[in-house]
Design goal:
- By secondary structure, the protein is of the alpha/beta class.
- It has ten helices and 15 strands.
- The strands form three sheets. The chain has a five-stranded parallel beta sheet with strand order 2-1-3-4-5, with helices on both faces. The chain has a five-stranded antiparallel beta sheet with strand order 6-15-14-11-12. A five-stranded antiparallel beta sheet has the order 7-8-9-10-13, covered by helices on one side.
- The longest helix is centred in the middle third of the chain and has 32 residues.
- The protein is elongated.
Amino acid sequence: MRILVADDQPGVLEAARFLLKSEGHTTVTAESPQAVLQLTSGPAADTFDLILIDLNYARDTTSGQEGLDLLAALKGAGVRSPVVVMTAWGSVDLAVEAMRRGASDFVQKPWDNTRLLDTITKQVARARASRSDLDIARTVQAKLLPSGPPAINGLDCAGRCIPALGIGGDYFDWFDLPDGRLGFVLADVSGKGIAAALLMAHLHGAFRGRLSLGLPSATELLQDVNRQFWESSPSEHYATLFYGVWEPLHRQLTWLNAGHLPGLLLRSGNGLEHLESSALPLGMFAHWTSEAQTTTLLPGDTLLVYSDGVVEAGVVGRGEEFGEERLVNEGREAACLSAAGLVDRICSRVIAWDDVQHDDCTLVALRAT
């Protein structure tokens, strides 16, 4: 196993290195929270089987706040390695608080060698089993997303979803409708991780199932989906979404925005229209209703529909979000690209805007041709 050990005392680091080496493990050491974050940033985030950290680094403190802040930072950065904390003060309250903030277990210093090794073995085994389950969930969720854009007259379209934790609550889909029409949806389920992924799968099934029974109007479709989602999900969960139907004969887009971020309609003549929300998110109440709206897409017009992970990227680490203005500018500057090229360009810019992706990033682009 590869284990990261963090403590401000060289003697403690040396003792841990000697003990772990005797068991055949590889040890990397750090003397400060900043060093831990550097060693677990970017591609190195998941290279450790376990992280063992002290809760106190300044010699004149016993509060454990530095360690608690480090735990929060690791969790915020998406580090999935189990974290075991060490404290020399035997504070049960502090250990409980550490586990509440994401620690897997704790040991007291000076540690008992047998107990420390047993704790490491147990937590690594548990984490590996959990990752196996996550890999399965990730594969299943990936299969629920479209493999590629549909072919439709008068429209070039593409979409991409990049979950922050490998799985998440963002969702988009295309629907082949009668009379050569194309339906599409982009949704963002509240929450993150496995719970959000399960609700996302349920939303996917609700859309697909209802459309397979016959084509209702856009409003009727969302009313049925809302009822199913409300009946089978916890009361505190909901989904914002943007649903649209492209009708190529009249170049008309019919759309509904249920509590979602506004769709950005970039007109070919440099105009900008916001397709704002006019209804509550789905799943909040048993009854839902809204009136669909329509607009015409002329050649060169581009519609961008996105989740909040796109415009809010960077707000945690960089301190400045990517924002709507940058999104619009990227759309303008990529006017010569295909819809797929536009989506890839924007997603790469968004992910690069911050060192660590903190939220699911989903984008759909439709360009009239």
